Amino acid sequence: MKIGPALLTVHLWLVLVFLYVPILVMAVLGFNASPLYALPFQFDLVWYKALAGNAKLIDAGINSIGIAIVNTAIATALGTMAALAFARYKFRGQTILQLLLFPPVAIPWLVIGTSMLVFFFWIDIKRGLFAILLGHVALSLPYVIVVVGARLATFPRAVEEAAATLGATPWQTFRRVTAPLLAPGVIGGALFAFAVSFDQFVISYFLAPPGITTLPVEIYGAIRKGFTPEINAISTIIIVVSMGALLLTARFYRFGGER
Amino acid sequence: MSTVAVTDAVKKYGAVAALDGVTMTFREGEFFGLLGPSGSGKTTLLRAIAGFVSLDRGQVLIDGKDVSGVPVHARDIGMMFQNYALFPHMSVAENVAFGLEVRGRPREEVADRVKAALAMVRLGGLEQRRPKQLSGGQQQRVALARALVTRPKVLLLDEPLGALDKHLRQEMQVELRRIQRQVGITTIFVTHDQEEALTLSDRIAIFDSGRIIQEGAPMAVYERPVTKFAAGFLGEANFLQGSVAAREPNGLARIALQIGGDASCRLSDGQVGQTVLLALRPEKITLGEGGHAGVNALRGKVLDVVFSGNSTTYRISVGDQVMILFRQNLAQGTVAPGSDVLVSWSPEHLVQVTP
């Protein structure tokens, strides 16, 4: 074996090991009976049972999923419309608006979270689920616009013109030609919006009033108090669900390129 | 079948006029070629007829009715795009059915007409394929079937064969013409390929800078170009400058050429002493090795020789000018570079053009 390819192979394995071994270890220990992560491994579902009885964690999970779903719907709809406007129309301030999309992706969430807390306090929006939702939408919108915009950049405009010459009204053209061709981009954007919201810790933490939490906030709290493999169990569930959703969408849509 | 007319069409993009007062009529059932360099306005005119471009001034009339306020989807046109613009997420049959479905035609009728349209372009059996799984020529046929299945009033073709290789292109030209005759639809097509325009069209118009330079039957425009641009754009031409020396009683004029020697031909316009510009097609010139210079016969020297199978192209220096000459390879062998030769032509092949 030549030295170049050998190095590349080593590189690949290092990436895989450091990315997936911790996840694997975490998942396995969630099925271990010992609360102190003691070995030898002894298979038990005790932590999953405990999880089922942990009302706080379940409430936080319901909050997180609820916020993520509503956020995804709003951010995807608004973001797709914005991306269409950027791609299809020339208007004053377009370049500046487009540039303004990127700072939220680059600015540390800590800074954004603090600013939102101050701003919401100032305009009298109380801390709570609504405030968290607002924060999440603002944060995930740029991701949707960028992902849908990437799809639009390679969108064959002539097919819309072709549809018009064939007698399709603008609405028929959108429904039967534009929307289906844009769908992979929109679904990609929606996945991002969901992930940004579901993962979001800092902003949720800042905007959550006492008594209301989301899953990441609750997990953080639990870890600080000293934790049990229950955390492994909930993390494993999150991973299985999100990986499943991702693989399902990837099966139906090839992202980036043409279908 | 329908007529299409454009009256005094003007379209400006900033200071540049894409259309600068174009008036023309497309007759019922004719195949009309719009020809010109890129940016000459031909595509803008086609898109104005389709409804994608709104004119600053002037009208588009379909069957005598002004369609300026009618949106694209209500104009009842068929259009073929440069890269076909097939719907990538639909099968061949769905692509063709689209125009009928958006019109709300009953399912059985749609199925029948799609089948008939695909049979017409000889694509039966490929109904379930996706556009990606088809060759360029097949995609082209799907696009044609899709454009014609709704029985539009007019068919617009935007460089329809531009993306095909030479052989396929010639095959599709024949096919396109066959189908167009069969359907009898008024067809307007844009091309920058002059040969294609000559082959396909009943009539052509040559565009330059947003204006029509000349329109007419392909042969008439080719044989009797009116401007230097038209002569040079449609095929190749030698240009000879001279001044009118005398008008002869037989209707011809004697012209003293700038490169030396005399020519004689019929002039549309020119008094004695006036400067005139004459166009001469390379294939109309006879090449001889002996003989003396005289009227419509000049001596020159062969600069180079390009053999291309059925014909040979000679570049010959005559006076201080280089003339191009095509000769069919009827006999074997070519005249060697450096040879002294006599180039001659008959008077009817000299065409007066405006500079």
Please provide a written account of the structure.
- The complex is a heterodimer of chains A (259) and B (355).
- With 259 residues, chain A is mainly alpha-helical.
- Chain A has one domain (45-252): MetI-like (MetI-like fold), CATH 1.10.3720.
- Helix content of chain A is 75%, strand content 0%.
- Chain A is built from twelve helices and no strands.
- Chain A has helices spanning 3-29, 46-52, 55-88, 94-99, 103-106, 109-122, 129-153, 158-165, 170-199, 202-207, 215-225, 230-252.
- In chain A, α1 packs across α12 (230-252).
- The radius of gyration of chain A is 22 Å and the shape is globular.
- The two termini of chain A are 37 Å apart.
- Mean pLDDT of chain A is 84; it is low at 255-259.
- Helices cover 24% and strands 35% of the residues of chain B.
- The model of chain B has no long low-confidence stretch (mean pLDDT 89).
- Chain B contains eight helices and 20 strands.
- By secondary structure, chain B is of the alpha+beta class.
- In chain B, α5 links the parallel β7 (154-158) and β8 (186-191).
- Chain B folds into two domains: 4-232, Rossmann fold; 237-353, Nucleic acid-binding proteins (OB fold (Dihydrolipoamide Acetyltransferase, E2P)), CATH 2.40.50.140.
- In chain B, α2 packs across α3 (107-120), α2 runs parallel beside α4 (136-148) and α3 crosses α4 (136-148).
- In chain B, the strands form four sheets. Chain B has a six-stranded mixed beta sheet, sandwiched between helices. Chain B has a five-stranded antiparallel beta sheet with strand order 13-12-11-14-20. In chain B, strands 15-19-16-17-18 form a five-stranded antiparallel beta sheet, with no helix packed on it.
- At the A-B interface, α8 and α9 of A face β6 and α2 of B.
